[in-house]
Amino acid sequence: MSAANRNGDSGTGDVNAVRRRLVGGAAGTLVLSLSPLQIARGANLLDVRLWPAADYTRVTLEHDQPLKFSHFMVRETAPLRLVVDIEDMELTAPLKELVGRVGADDPYIARVRIGQNKPRVVRLVIELKEDIRPEVFALAPVGPYQHRLVLDLKPVTPPDPLLALLREQMGPQVVEGERRDEAAVVRDTRRPDSGQGAPARGRPRQQPVDRLLTIAIDPGHGGEDPGAIGKRGTQEKDVTLNIAQRLQRLIAAERDLRVLLTRDGDYFVPLRERVDKARRVQADLFVSIHADAWIRPDARGSSVFALSERGASSAAAAWMARRENDADVIGGVNLGVRDAQVAQVLLDLSTTAQINDSLRFGNAVLRELERVNALHKPRVEQAGFAVLKAPDVPSILVETAFISNPDEERRLNDDGYQQKLARAILNGIRQYLAQQPIGARRTLG
Ligand SMILES: [Zn+2]
Hints:
Blueprint: H1 3-6, H2 11-22, H3 30-33, H4 36-41, E1 45-51, E2 57-63, E3 69-74, E4 81-87, H5 93-101, E5 109-118, E6 121-128, E7 132-139, E8 147-155, H6 161-170, H7 179-190, E9 213-219, H8 236-252, E10 257-261, H9 271-280, E11 285-290, E12 303-307, H10 315-325, H11 327-331, H12 340-348, H13 352-369, E13 381-383, E14 395-399, H14 406-412, H15 415-435
Parallel strand pairs: 9-10, 9-11, 11-14, 12-13
Antiparallel strand pairs: 1-2, 2-8, 3-4, 4-6, 5-6, 7-8, 12-14
Helix pairs in contact: 6-7, 8-15, 13-15
Bound molecules: zinc ion.
């Protein structure tokens, strides 16, 4: 703010600038009733983004100054709605466009209404399809973004990844209360030689029972976090999802494996939630898929990373881990509701055994990737990747290729090449499982 503005003497230049912002807005005449000081404080809305997903729907308002806001739920009268009041903001075209951007298929939002509630207070009324647990929070400027006001509309009961897995195998008749028992039945019926065996129903899960192995596939980035961006505009989050979905189909076709994707659309999933989803389905292996940029544009080749208990195996690995761990900052994690219990577990329970298994697993995958791409590093590298911290789950992060290398960017967009990468990772999983049977739990048909 200039000294002139602080003195209340804006001059005509400032007023005109504000008028231009308000052109087309219903509140245009407000300019006349406001002091120049108030006008100078108003925030400009830069972008509005909507990320609908079954996990939750996010609405992001990006703007150029910190905002004052408040919110409340209205449950007493229909329709069920979330009301958000934003101070010092005018009703502008991008905000009005939000109304039209809500699709009929949005899992949580029925429609949005926007109005100038009082002078300089914009009221957003989000009519809901079901009750939600709203999280409304601000994010300071970071990376490519200026200030963000984030509205996360989360279901009161979060989707259960184990239930989702069972639905995929059995169809929608699986009901909530039966899922543990059903899980045991599924394991038996899916075994090719299970015709005469006693059903596993009722057996505690920890005992060595025959079961499907669960592979958690984690497509890097998503939503507000595009990951690395190639010269031709390819976004890492799209490439990682495509490769992960190809790998998902390959794994689903294997009789003794089942697969969980930590995200199945274009939305942000915090790193600890990716790990938490894998733990909730008791994943046997965890593979995070990436295609990052490197410091030098001529860098090329695939690499595989595992967790390190202390220190990174190279400066480059440390750099890569910092970059990946920034995903939460760029993607916009709500620090206000960090789940202390989960966070603590994730920080403390990584073991030497988990890391050694991860190194062996990573090596098996690296040897397969070598058949479809040059290797960036011939050995599995190690650093403090937050997403690899599932206790007791061998976990690796695969940098399939460098999106920053124009040649590799082109190949990463190629369907056939994506399929080769997915196949190589599956072969690596197979190699590892052959060398390293997962305890007595594992029985092949
Ligand atoms: Zn990445």
